[in-house]
Amino acid sequence: MSARVAYLFTYNALQFLGWSYLLVKICESLSHGHNSAVQLYDDVSLILQIFQTGAALEILHAALGLVRSNVQITFQQVQSRLFITWGILYLLPTTRSSLGLFCLLFAWTITEMIRYSMYAIQLVASPPYFLTWLRYTFFIVAYPVGVSGELLCSFAGFWEAKDSGVLSVAMPNAWNATFYYPAIIAVICALYIPLFPPMYLHMFAQRKKILNKETKTE
After folding, report:
1. 106-160 confidence digits (pLDDT tens)
2. Is there a catalytic annotation at residue 150?
3. How far is CA 45 from the centre of its chain?
4. Residue-by-residue DSSP string for 156-207
5. What mean pLDDT, rounded, does the chain reach?
6. Is 215 a residue whose pLDDT tops 70?
7. Where are the alpha helices (H) located in the chain, listed in sequence order?
């Protein structure tokens, strides 16, 4: 096994274990009666932050050619989640009470468990058909649910940022510059309109290509 394969296998295996642990913590939280989004966030936030931030390495993997992923698409997917994790949920507490938290946790957690397990197995063997099928089928539900959750949390974050002035810089000041954080949130949300449909349709094209290939090889 080459150093590249060993590194990527370890990375994907650790990410799979991390997201699996997150699912366990979500189930534990709900089973203990922590049914509010705020309580759930308090129970799982640290794990979410660690393993979602760890996904930033995927941009580097693509840029260095360690994997064949498109750098632009990888950056787009990772930065949107990092923004939600840190720029919305961490920075703006009222967003943690949004129904969107349940939606994005459901979509992110299951998606990443499937994705990372498949990537790890692919490095050493052929993944089983059911895992490939899940990888290219679950997104049909997960993408809309996850995006809806992200937008719901961002919408709540917009109003909190507007009322609190967090990160915003008004004139006059020593830098002679202004910064309005709610506008950043609004712009990022608006980007979902042109960026999400092509990505979603791309996954359908990939689904047809991969599953047809798997069927022919059986």
Report:
1. 999 999 999 999 999 999 999 999 999 999 999 999 999 999 999 999 999 999 9
2. yes
3. 14
4. HHHHHHHHH-TT-BPSS-TT---B-HHHHHHHHHHHHHHHHHHHHHHHHHHH
5. 92
6. no
7. 3-31, 37-54, 57-63, 71-82, 99-122, 129-135, 139-164, 181-217
> Which has the closest alpha carbon to 197: 125, 147, 123?
147
Could you identify the residue written with the tokens 């274990």? 17
Cβ pair 104, 84 in contact under 8 A? yes
Sign of CA pseudo-dihedral 115, 121, 124, 128: negative
C-alpha pair distances (Å), 29 with each of 15, 21, 45, 85, 192 = 21, 12, 12, 19, 31
Catalytic residue, candidates 143, 180, 192, 200? 143
d(CA 197, CA 100): 20
Annotated catalytic residue within 41, 112, 136, 150: 150
> How far apart (Å, rounded) are the C-alpha atoms in residues 102 and 36?
9
Residue 143 CB-density burial (10 A; 0-12 exposed, 13-18 middle, 19+ buried): middle
pTM for the full predicted model: 0.92
What are 111's two structure tokens? 């998606």
Each domain of the chain, given as residue ranges in start order, spans 3-217
